[in-house]
Amino acid sequence: MTPSMELDDGVLWVRAARGDADAFGLLFERHADAIYNYCFRRIGDWATAEDLLSVVFLEAWRRRDKELPPDKVLPWLYGIATNAVRNQRRSRRRFAAALRRLPKPRLEPATADSADERLDDQRQMKQVLTLLAQLPRREQEVFALCAWFDLTYEDAAIALEIPVGTVRSRLSRARGRLRELVPGFGHEKESRHERAQEVVEP
Amino acid sequence: MTAKYSLPPTREIPPDRRQQLKHFLMSEIAQQPPRLLTRRVLALLRGRLTRRSVVAAAVIVLAVVAGVLGSRGGTGTASAAEVRAKLAEGLRLDETISGEFSVRTRDPGPRPRGVPADSNAPQQVPLPSKFVIAPDGSYSSLTIPLGAANRRDIAYDATTGVETSVGSIVISNGRPVYLRATNLDPAFLARYAPEAQLGAWVQGAVADRNPGVKEVTFEGRAAWKLTSSFSPGERFYDIYGARVDVVVDQETGLVLQLVQYAYSTDRWTSIASVHDLKLGEPTGAGDFTVPKPPGAVELSHDYGFRRVPVAAAAAAIGYRPLLPTTTLGRSLSDFAVAKISEFPFPGIPVRRDIASARYGLGAAIITVSSYRGAVSDLTSLLPAVNAHTVRPTHGPLVGGVAYVTTSPLSGAVFAAFADGLLVLITAPSTNDALTIANSLRATR
Fold first, then answer.
1. A3-101: what fold?
2. Which residue in A4, A156, B327, B349 has the most C-beta neighbors within 10 A?
3. Which residue from B7, B26, B122 is facing A128, i.e. has the nearest CB?
4. Enclosing domain of residue B136
5. Which residues contact A58 (CB under 8 A, 6 or more apart)?
6. Is B3 within a domain?
7. Residues B353 and B243 in one domain
């Protein structure tokens, strides 16, 4: 591990803002999985999540003059990802030329099992998203960040650029609605441990 | 009705794919110029302004504004038009200039209601540097102090045609690369000059506004201070902020200082200055070569351009290059061709059969390049934002696909595709670029 890999996000972000691509690359290494999974859970498709992951980091680089508190780089990236998911068409159009250059995934037989698992993931996620789609979009966003990715209220507020109080109220409403839809709901914590839940099918 | 489901587990990106994605990302961002002071630097701007233009058009200070600027009293001693003319004179750079460049920033405070979140974001802080710019096109900009981390040094020796730089490439283990580049593209010199960015700003501000003018002194030099204010919603607001002050040297027309005010007109947030400006200082061997830092990995790169007479270009690249018959009063200052030209950065497409010309000297230049490619290559030449379709009305580009940028700050970048050729033009304004595009002719 090089010394620079031990630098915190804030230092790397400042370096990236000064044009240090390596520092930005380290931020990618550090947070790519989180953003990748977030995008997947918001849209239910791993391939699209890859595209959006690239969009998020290209957009982050484009906006690297953003001043961020040292420990808020990841929440801010979640915010970019939220916008990318929300405005997929516009995000893709902005980076259309770049995405055309995005190499296709290599097809490797050794990963066939993994491919099956990922197909299962997608089926499962579609069900969850079908349920979540019954909430207003803004509540979905708060719920996904706080319940599925453990963001604090403050971090979610930074990601969504809304007041902390709004995060609280939206999350509360989201939970309330899900309780109505899913008997015994209250499983946000459990969801992180991938426990099975009873949900309403539309 | 209810059904069983489980939230799928989180998964890591497969390692190979992860490497692919990272490589892709690094390649993409390597194609973009470093953003120094502007929020939206056009992708091809970096080739438009020479390093000389850099300081030519810009320069700034870091001391406390009030402490450095002393009003000589009175307003309206010169009109904005007169200052504009002097600035144009300064862009010619007809004597050696040297000094130190630095930028200072502070928190702009809370964003006012109604201002979009990504408007008027705090600007980047270029590293302080010592610069020298000579009339023959040689220049150097060295980060201060010499041992600074993340340094970005660049120098070009016009007598040898060699550009040396540190910081334009950093290899993955963090070691700096000392890049020695030869046979450069006439339209693509001086890519990393922070001063050039300032020059673009100032030109845009002065060209498009009618600022108030006041006489001041700056480090003992007689100067004009131009002040412009902007409101949210104005196109300059996102770029400059609520107000910008520009200090222009009365003797040379060089920009000595740029002060920005992000959200309010009474709280500065960025001051860029040129200190210790010297004119006509003698230069010697080695002044235009970046010293190689200890531990740096040395890399040589040949861009592949050969200086040939225009009449000999067709034999070299297989077609008659498209050059303008209207050059806005500028003379051809550099012309070269390349069968193939690669960048020393990953991910940037190779260009083939290139003819590249530069007109004018100093910062007041226009460039025209053509090379073989596909229409799809256009998308990588211009950013999605700030570009719009145009239709050339005369010359070989009629009927082709053409775009031009509209940024008021970086001048115009025009890109077109016709008959298998990509054409790239940089010029001070959109109208200039279109005029040049419509005057293109295949040379004999």
1. Rna Polymerase Sigma Factor; Chain: A (1.10.1740)
2. A156
3. B7
4. 45-107+121-279
5. A95, A98, B25, B28, B29
6. no
7. no
Q: Cα separation of A57 and A77, whole Å?
A: 8
| Domain shared by B220 and B77, yes or no | yes
Q: Check if the beta carbon of residue B150 is closer than 8 Å to that of residue B129.
A: no
Cα gap B318→A37, rounded to integer Å? 51
Which of B22, B16, B75 lies closest to A54 in space, CA to CA? B22
Q: How many domains does chain B have?
A: 2
**Long-range CB contact pairs, A90-93, < 8 A, 24+:** A91/A52, A91/A55, A91/A59, A92/A51, A92/A55, A93/B384
Cβ pair B400, B416 in contact under 8 A: yes
- Domain definitions of chain A by residue range: 3-101, 135-202
The Cα of B112 is separated from the nearest Cα of chain A by a number of Å equal to 14
Residues B191 and B271 both lie in one domain: yes
List CB contacts (< 8 A) between B238 and chain A.
Answer: none
**pLDDT greater at residue A98 or residue B398:** B398
pLDDT band at B379 (very low <50, low <70, confident <90, very high): low
Banded pLDDT at A157 (limits 50, 70, 90): very high
Taking the C-alpha atoms of residue A168 and residue B192, their distance in angstroms, rounded to an integer, is 46
The verdict on residue B299 lying in a domain is no
Higher-confidence residue of B296 and A32: namely A32
Domain boundary, last residue among B244, B279, B314: B279
Tell me if chain B has a CB within 8 Å of the CB of A58.
yes
* CB < 8 Å to B150, chain A: 15, 18, 20
Residue B235 pLDDT exceeds 70 = no
Q: Cβ of B350 under 8 Å from any chain A Cβ?
A: no
Whether B39 has its CB under 8 Å from any CB of chain A: the answer is yes
Q: What is the ipTM of this complex?
A: 0.84
Residue A53: per-residue pLDDT: 93
Q: Is B4 on the interface with A (CB under 8 A)?
A: yes
DSSP B52: H
Cα separation of A31 and A38, whole Å?
11
**Whether residue B339 sits in one domain with residue B258:** no
**Do B18 and A19 lie within an 8 Å CB cutoff?**
no
Judgement on whether residues B275 and B308 belong to the same structural domain of the protein: no
Distance of alpha carbon B307 from alpha carbon B186, whole angstroms: 9
Task: Please write the tens of the pLDDT for every residue from B392-432.
Answer: 899 999 988 888 875 544 567 888 999 899 999 988 777 88
Residue B82 lies in a domain: yes
Better pLDDT: B155 or A1: B155
Residue ending a domain, choose from B242, B263, B279: B279
Residue ranges with strand state E in B289-365: 297-302, 322-324, 332-341, 351-359
Is B414 among the domain residues?
yes
pLDDT at A75 over 90: yes
Predicted pLDDT at B74: 35
CATH assignment of the domain containing B424? 3.40.1000
How would residue B87 be classed by pLDDT, with cut points 50, 70 and 90? confident
